[in-house]
Fold:
Amino acid sequence: MVRAYLLRVVDDELDRLTLPAVIVEGAKAVGKTSTLERRSKSVHRLFRTAELELLQADQHRVLAGDRPIFIDEFQRYPQAVDVVREAVDADQSPRQFYLAGSAGADADTHSGAGRIVTVRMRPMAFSERQLEQPTVSLAGLLGGGRPPVEGETQVGLNGYVDEILRSGFPAIRNYAGADLHAALRGYVDRVVQRDIPDELGRAVRRPDALRRWLRAYAAASGTATTIERIRDSAHGGEGRTPARTTTEAYRDALERLWIVDDLPAWLPTKNHLAPLLQTPKRFLADPALAASLVGAGRAKLVSGEDVEPAVPRDGSFLGALFEALVVLSVRVYAQAAGATVAHFRERHGRHEVDIIVERPDGGVVALEVKLTQTVAREEVKHLIWLREQLGDQLLDSAVVCVSPFAYRRKDGVAVVPLALLGP
Structure:
């Protein structure tokens, strides 16, 4: 059965772009192929060995077909970008080529000198899953003026747990039960057995050590744990930790595969705040991958049972995974608004804010993530402190939570259920 295509936020981004060529990058299975096939008249599928060999024999075959032309998994033959670049030098008509890649290419591959632009595609944000109609726009909050905030949702804690475990990978999320677990395990198996060796250019000598390291990384979701601590947690009870050079190679490969998706620390340029922590928060591309890696099913998440390997973390692992789902969604919405996303924490730890969304001109929206239905003053104290520090630079602030209602508190802080937040 062919399933209906669900519009993605990136579709609006692609609609606005009129450059001759666009590269869409992201982890495998985020939906790049489905999104770009709809926009194209001709397709070259380089994951098919026969098509790749034909192109290697004659690289200009990439120009064959009616335009727009879609080149899928272009990183398997990076020279295709050179051919596209030459073609758009000769003809700069809009929307001639779309390229999709699930592994990072060399920097010079992307240098289209204004003719080729790169767009990131992530797993499905919450609003893209069409469980609820958003009533609060991140772009609206970024516009300043503290717009009205209202709305009601039927999505509760169980609904958010379901979405964490179902994943934002369009094909995987259609499975349930044992099939869903098998699909997520299979995704990790492919990363360990095929994708990372391909990126490293060699076999992984100890796949078991790589799996333990990935599990430790998953367990650190939502924390600013150092890479060294994650490495130390990956011994698997055997008293052996992977070598530093080995884990560095793992992490580099996983970043190129878009599996590791850390949230950088915010380093403001307009204000001289106290010394800030510069360690990123650790996240994988999708919270479902993290839950699968540590074996955290519904029973364990809802009961509050902790996971191993243990890492310093405020709150439950479910809270960390909910934050991962919020961060994933906010990143998708912020990208559409031309904004960047980071986290904020003073080095001494007295003040921290989960998410900072920053416009190019330095205007900021600050978001706290809370796995709670009610928002007390304790939950907004860091947002109010940041407002006092930033003044007019802080455009708005909100707590993203599991409340059934969206509203604005008397202190000006918005309360927004994740289900009601959209681009």
Notes: The radius of gyration is 22 Å.
